[in-house]
Design the sequence.
């Protein structure tokens, strides 16, 4: 009887081992991507609502790593000569330093490359200067096929990625499939872009009680906030909205007539002509030139515009003051102070964060 | 063993059904505040924005380009003078057509109420709190102007007395003097809007109407040539807004 029981036990043992081996051969070991929540800065969690993370594209370690690899890889462009980072360089707070950007054919576009940071806090999820991209995932699809940017097509890019020695495995790790699609590539890029968080400026540390501002910087903040001086805060945030943008669309008095309709070309509503998204005022030290077409080379030129250079047009925002006089008429001292304050919103650690380097 | 589980499941199911039935008999109705807007009786929606088509009491033609405002502290007062105070708030944004309907859910027991009210803006205590959603909507008032939040942001254009288009920013806040490190407050400029008696029976929607023209009318005939922009640090203008605001809201229909 003992022998019989022994034999039965051995049979179970071997059948069990055999079964496990067979499973390993047929089914990959479960490698669910590892969730990785965004590291939300204290200055944000203290003041503004949580970021927007789509339910169908939650952040994972593997997805972010893949997105970063794709972001810096020339493989996305038609002749494999440029990457996303060519126009969105970490050293320039993920923009470049030309008024508009050049694509693979040497042709310049019509818009200034927007800096990339704190994108997950764009609550309306309208991206680009004109709001035409309704999510980060959709935005990531566009430059690849834009004829004056990467001038490629996704079918070719997907084929390249699929035949690459490493990408199929990276997609499998990120999305549990090694069948690559443009949608998965865009999801990965969007995941990486959502990690680009900038919240360690001098002013952030001042807000957290960790640093002091000079009297000139404080006076500049006063100019920024005063309705009878700069009145910048209605469109560009305030110490309680540390995004330093409302992410909304305004005609800020650049032109009397429009060569670029901006939001109006997207909505088809003439009341939106000449409106562009307010950019964040963070990292101005690294993101010149300014405006949607990069027309202003310096912060001084931007301040001069709002002070004396406003141009009237039918859709100019009512928040623009003293249009007939050209603007808010700041003194030379107020301009200098305002500039000093604006520069406290720049975050040098954002440029050197190792997580954001190639 | 299976039989035990099946019996347990059935017992739980029926216990659950029984609970639900009891609750549905006692559940208060759902109540919604629905905000609509008009110009002296002519309905106004965001489709009417951006066109100079309204004439104020002073005779100035104007357009509306942005209109959003805050209401808070909704109360329901019973006929025995018990006050149900809902410590809530809602940012109504006519520009984007958002939050025009504010659901109070099932917080209001059915019955007759002698008055329903809300606060236009925030009272001073509420105004001193930190609201992440309002910060995210850039509805703040700078600290040197007393801090807290706008009560209303109403922007547009008007034809001035030289027949030119000009901008106005009719921004209501807590009236403030001596802007700076130590601002002072001459008088409160939030106000209570009393809507009157309401009966709640079944799901109820209170249709609240804002006559936008009233902001320019009563008791102060508003002259946009004099008061157009930079009104936040102008306490006299804020007090006039407060006075004119008293007649802006009325209770329209109550639908059940």
Sequence:
């Amino acid at each position: 009887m003992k022998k019989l029981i022994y034999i039965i036990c051995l049979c179970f043992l071997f059948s069990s081992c055999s079964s496990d081996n067979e499973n390993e051969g047929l089914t990959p070991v479960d490698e669910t991507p590892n969730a990785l929540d965004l590291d939300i800065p204290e200055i944000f969690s203290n003041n503004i609502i949580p970021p927007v993370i789509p339910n169908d594209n939650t952040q994972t370690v593997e997805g972010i790593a893949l997105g970063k690899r794709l972001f810096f890889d020339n493989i996305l462009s038609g002749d494999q000569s440029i990457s996303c980072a060519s126009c969105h360089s970490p050293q320039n707070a993920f923009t470049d330093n030309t008024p508009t950007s050049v694509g693979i054919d040497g042709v310049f576009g019509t818009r200034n490359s927007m800096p990339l940071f704190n994108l997950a806090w764009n609550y309306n999820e309208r991206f680009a200067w004109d709001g035409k991209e309704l999510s980060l995932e959709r935005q990531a699809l566009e430059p690849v096929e834009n004829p004056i940017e990467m001038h490629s097509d996704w079918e070719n890019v997907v084929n390249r990625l699929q035949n690459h020695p490493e990408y199929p495995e990276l997609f499998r790790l990120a999305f549990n499939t090694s069948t690559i699609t443009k949608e998965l590539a865009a999801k990965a890029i969007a995941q990486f872009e959502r990690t680009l968080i900038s919240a360690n400026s001098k002013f952030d540390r001042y807000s957290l009680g960790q640093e002091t501002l000079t009297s000139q910087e404080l006076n500049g903040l006063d100019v920024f906030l005063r309705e009878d001086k700069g009145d910048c805060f209605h469109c560009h945030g305030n110490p309680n909205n540390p995004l330093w943008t409302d992410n909304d669309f305004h005609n800020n008095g650049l032109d009397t007539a429009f060569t670029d309709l901006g939001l109006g070309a997207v909505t088809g509503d003439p009341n939106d002509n000449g409106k562009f998204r307010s950019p964040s005022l963070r990292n101005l030290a690294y993101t010149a030139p300014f405006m949607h077409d990069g027309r202003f080379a310096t912060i001084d030129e931007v301040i001069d515009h709002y002070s004396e250079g406003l141009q009237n047009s039918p859709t100019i925002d009512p928040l623009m003051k003293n249009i007939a006089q050209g603007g808010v008429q700041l003194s030379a001292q107020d301009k200098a102070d305002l500039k000093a304050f604006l520069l406290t919103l720049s975050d040098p650690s954002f440029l050197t964060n190792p997580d954001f380097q190639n | 063993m299976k039989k035990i589980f099946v019996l347990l499941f059935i017992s739980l199911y029926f216990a659950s059904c029984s609970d639900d039935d009891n609750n549905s008999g006692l559940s208060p109705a759902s109540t919604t505040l629905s905000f609509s807007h008009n110009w002296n009786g002519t309905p106004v929606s965001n489709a009417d924005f951006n066109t100079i088509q309204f004439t104020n009491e002073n005779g100035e033609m104007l357009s509306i380009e942005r209109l959003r405002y805050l209401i808070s502290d909704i109360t329901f007062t019973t006929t025995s003078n018990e006050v149900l105070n809902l410590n809530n708030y809602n940012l109504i944004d006519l520009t984007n057509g958002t939050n025009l309907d504010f659901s109070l859910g099932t917080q209001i027991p059915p019955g007759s109420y002698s008055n329903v009210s809300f606060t236009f803006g925030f009272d001073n205590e509420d105004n001193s709190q930190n609201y992440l959603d309002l910060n995210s909507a850039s509805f703040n008032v700078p600290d040197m102007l007393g801090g807290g939040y706008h009560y209303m942001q109403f922007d547009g254009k008007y034809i001035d007395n030289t027949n030119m288009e000009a901008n106005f920013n009719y921004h209501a806040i807590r009236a403030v003097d001596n802007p700076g490190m130590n601002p002072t407050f001459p008088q409160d400029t939030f106000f209570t809007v009393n809507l009157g008696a309401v009966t709640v029976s079944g799901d109820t929607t209170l249709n609240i109407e804002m006559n936008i023209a009233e902001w320019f009318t009563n008791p102060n005939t508003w002259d946009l040539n004099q008061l157009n922009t930079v009104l936040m640090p102008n306490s006299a203008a804020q007090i006039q807004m407060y006075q004119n605001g008293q007649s802006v809201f009325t209770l329209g229909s109550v639908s059940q």
In short: The domain at 202-350 of chain A is CATH 1.10.760.10 (Cytochrome Bc1 Complex; Chain D, domain 2). The two ends of chain A are 68 Å apart (CA to CA).
